[in-house]
Amino acid sequence: MREMFSDARLVATKDLRIEARSRVLVNQVAPFALLVLVLFGFALDADQRTLRTFAPGLFWVTVLLAALLAVARSASVEHSDDAHSGLRLSGMSPSSIFLGKAAAVFVQLMVLEVLLTLGIVVLYGSEIDDPVLMSLTAVAAAVAVATMGTLYAALASGLGARETLLPILLLPVLAPVLIGATRAFDDALGAAAVDGWAWLGLLAVFGLVATVLGALAHGAMIED
Amino acid sequence: MTHLGYLVAGWGIALFVLGMYGYRIVRRGRLLAASVPEDQQRWLTSSGDDGSG
Amino acid sequence: MADRNTSTSSSGSRLLGVTTLVGLVGLLLFAFVLTEPDVRLHPTTGEEFGQFDAVRLLYLHVPMAVLTYVAFLTCAVASATYLVKRGPWWDVTAHASAEVGTVFCGLVLVTGSIWGRPVWNTWWEWGDVRLMTTLVLFLLFTGYLALRRTAADPQRQARRAAIVALVAVLDIPLINRSVEWWENRTLHQQSTLAELKIEDLTLFTLMLGFVVFGMVFAWLMLHRFRVGWLEQALARYEVETAIAERHAEIETLDLDAAVGETGGGT
Fold first, then answer.
1. Residue B19 falls within a domain, yes or no?
2. Closest approach of B45 to chain C, Cα-based (Å)
3. Residue ranges making up the domain that contains C137
4. Mind telling me how many Å the CA of A194 is from chain C's nearest CA?
5. Best of C3, C226, C238 to disrupt the B interface by mutation (most B CBs within 10 Å)?
6. Residue A90 Cα, gap to closest chain C Cα (Å)
7. Any CB–CB contact under 8 A between C139 and chain A?
8. What is the rounded CA–CA span in Å between residue C4 and residue B34?
9. What's the domain count of chain B?
């Protein structure tokens, strides 16, 4: 068990180091996410009251779209130069590889969510009522998106159509996360009167299930 | 009969789609059966699997 | 049978097919002629209300909805078994049930929408739990079928498809729960079967619907399974013949080369 986590940390550090050198998140994914926020503004006629009401939903749709890029990137890192064979031959268990890669995506998603929070506060005029609920929601949803995303990006890679296949496979699975995180943010940002903490519970369950399922499924998948 | 248009549309679409789907499967089966040799065709008695179903 | 090897039918499937067609005619007779429309009288005002003739769509919609879930459950069980036991039989079963299930699921959404327009006065109801769950389910399995259409190594594709199917089915309770909390209203509970005045004949017609569409489902599954089986057999056979051709080619090449060599030498 201990070995699994230290291996996972090794993989996560490797992925984050690659990210730090290549700066794909900073140079491509984050600008893309901000661009989506601006496009929503155009689409909704830049009416700040409308934008504030829908800010939670727009925030999470943006996170999902940006996450698609992030997990595809995370999988393609292994795919280029046949790096995944090297990783497999390293003797690490598939579960720890999975946890490591998901952790790296999680860290990137958290950075992205902080940026986007600034984005909705500045651009949409959102006000944060409950920072605790908001940060816990951000963490739980990022766990769910990172684990499911990592699993599906690995599933879609090496099938010959991964760019187009990944969204249609991943987005429906994440529907409960979008609903839950939006509702919890509705509460935390004061956009609607709902019980955000109950939604946080659902997100936590989803995150836990996704992590366990992903670790198991990655083992079954990587045998080939 | 009330709602006749809805009834015709609902039953019509469903039966038409099922019919077309069935027809496509059967036709594809005929095409495939023509190109697979006889001894490899049987679904329950082939080698290399547990024909337990 | 003489033509046994030119199609996916067998004497059993042909019998099932004929019975299904006869059953369909019988079901249409019961659904459109012999049963009464759903008309109820309001206890205080005495006004007529109910689904009227639109109720006749339910004899099709409800059995198909149940069979959709049967199909996806079959797919999940076959996928799990495939991951453990690795037989092609399970792989083909999973693929067949997913495809037939997706066709049924799409039709459930379409017929439900057509039924909802006169009865609920809307084509689509965002707040309805079952409606939304079914839609997400349809999208999930559309993705599954897209994965199965990629040109990848069959073994790898089969294993990944099995994982996708399992995750999709395990996701159903979470989708259901989240939609239920999301919009705390469901039209289905107000005006489905529980509220219909179900008489003997209505109930019988509904049961007949289950039997007939069950037979349609079985017939489609049978043929779809056999198509999948033939596809795998064809792929195997093509590899074998290609290898045999290469062998033959190499042998003739060697011969030519040998002849050429001796020819050049003299």
1. yes
2. 11
3. 11-254
4. 10
5. C226
6. 21
7. yes
8. 11
9. 1
Q: How many angstroms separate the CA atoms of A206 and C237, rounded?
A: 44
pTM equals 0.85
The answer to whether residue C262 is domain-embedded is no
Domain boundaries of chain A, sorted by first residue: 2-222
* Residue from C205, C162, C154 nearest A160 by CA: C154
Chain B positions in Cβ-Cβ contact with residue C87 (cut-off 8 Å): 49-50, 52
**Neighbouring chains to A with at least 3 Cβ pairs closer than 8 Å:** C
Residue type, B16: F
Q: C114–B2: do the CB atoms touch at under 8 Å?
A: no
Q: Tell if the CB–CB gap between A169 and C143 is shorter than 8 Å.
A: yes
Which chain C residues contact residue A159 at CB under 8 A?
A: 147, 150, 152, 156-157, 160
The b/e string for A32-59 (b: 16+ C-beta within 10 A; e otherwise) is: ebbebbeebbeeeeeeeeebbbbbbbbb
Query: What's the structural domain count of chain C?
Result: 1
ipTM of the complex: 0.85
Burial of C211 (0-12, 13-18, 19+ CB in 10 A): middle
pLDDT tens over chain A, length 224 residues = 777 888 888 888 888 888 888 887 888 888 999 999 999 988 887 777 888 888 999 999 999 999 999 988 888 877 766 666 667 677 778 888 889 989 999 999 999 999 999 999 998 888 888 889 999 999 999 999 999 999 998 888 877 766 788 999 999 999 989 988 998 998 888 877 778 888 898 899 999 999 998 888 887 776 65
Q: Which residue in chain B is spatially nearest to C116 when comparing CA positions?
A: B6
